[in-house]
Amino acid sequence: MSELNLILLGPPGAGKGTQAARLRKDFDLAYxxxxxxxxxxxxxxxxxxxxxxxxxxxxxLVPDPLVIAMILSKVEDEGxxxxxLDGFPRNxxxxxxxxxxxxxxxxxxxxALYVAAPDDVxxxxxxxxRQCANGHIQHVTFDPPKxxxxxxxxxxxxxxxxxxxxxxxxxxxATYHEQTEALIDYxxxxxxxxxFDGTRSPTEVHxxxxxxxxxxxxxxxx
Length: 222
Ligand code: AP5
Prior knowledge:
It is a single chain. This protein has 222 residues and is an alpha/beta fold. The chain has a domain at 4-29 and 79-117 and 180-221: 3-Layer(aba) Sandwich (Rossmann fold). Helix content is 51%, strand content 14%. It has 9 helices and 7 strands; from the N terminus they run βαβαααβαβαββααβα. The chain has helices spanning 16-27, 34-43, 47-57, 64-78, 92-104, 119-128, 166-180, 183-189, 202-221; strands at residues 5-9, 30-33, 83-86, 111-116, 129-131, 137-139, 193-197. The strands form 2 sheets. The chain has a 5-stranded parallel sheet, sandwiched between helices. It has a two-stranded antiparallel ribbon with strand order 5-6. Strand 5 and strand 6 (137-139) form a beta hairpin. Helix 1 (16-27) packs across helix 9, helix 2 crosses helix 3 and helix 6 packs across helix 7 (166-180). The relative contact order is 0.18. It binds BIS(adenosine)-5'-pentaphosphate.
C-alpha cells in the first residue's frame, strides 16, 4: 500500500487536533504537530521555546527559520512510512520549503485536508477547550469531562491553553486570515486540496476524511 503524506489545514479550533488523533489510530502515521512541539519547547525552556513563547502568546506565527528547520528534520527522521502534519505549513514560505524537501526526498504530498469552520464557531470551541498534559482534548460543553476538570482518557488535570484566552484567540484568527488562508488556493491549484465541513460532529468529519482517503488510494491503484 502506498504511503500517506498528509497535511491538516484550517483555522484555529476547526478540529485539526481532534481529527489527527483519530487518523493516527486509523493509519499509524508519524504525527508532527507544530503547536504541540513548540509548547513542549516552551515548557522545557529551551532556546527555541524562549524565543517562540512571545510570538505564541501574542497569537502570531513563530518566525519561519525556527519552525521550518524543526519540522523538516522531523519529516526526515520520522516520516519515512508516511506522516500527518498538523499546523504546518502556515504560509507560502513554509509550503514552498515543504515542497522542496519532499522533492529532494523523491516523495510527494497525498492531500491537504482542509477542515473549515467559521470564526464564531471556533471562538466558542476554543474558549471551552481543555487539554491534559498528555495532549487529550475535551470541551466543557461539547465533550464535558465525567469528573470536573479531569481528563476522561488518562485522569490527569485538564487545563486551558494560554493562547485560548479570548483576546489571543481573536489575534490567532486574524493571523490565520492574513497568512494561512491563502494556502487553500495554493493546494487547490496543485489539485491536492480536500475540503471538510468542520461544523459537523467529530465522527461525521472523521468518516468523511476516511472515505476521501480511501477513494484517493483506490484512484492511485487504477
Ligand atoms: P496550534 O497548536 O497548531 O494551534 P491552532 O492551529 O491554532 O489549532 P488549535 O490547536 O487551536 O485547534 P484545532 O484545529 O487543533 O482544534 P481542536 O481539535 O483542538 O498552534 C499554536 C501556536 O503555535 C500558533 O498560534 C503559533 O504561534 C504557533 N505555530 C504553530 N504552528 C506554526 C507554524 N507552522 N508557523 C509558525 N508558528 C506556528 O478543537 C478545538 C475544540 O473544539 C476542542 O475543545 C474540541 O473538543 C472541539 N471540537 C473539535 N471538533 C469539533 C466538532 N466537530 N464539533 C464540536 N466540537 C469540536
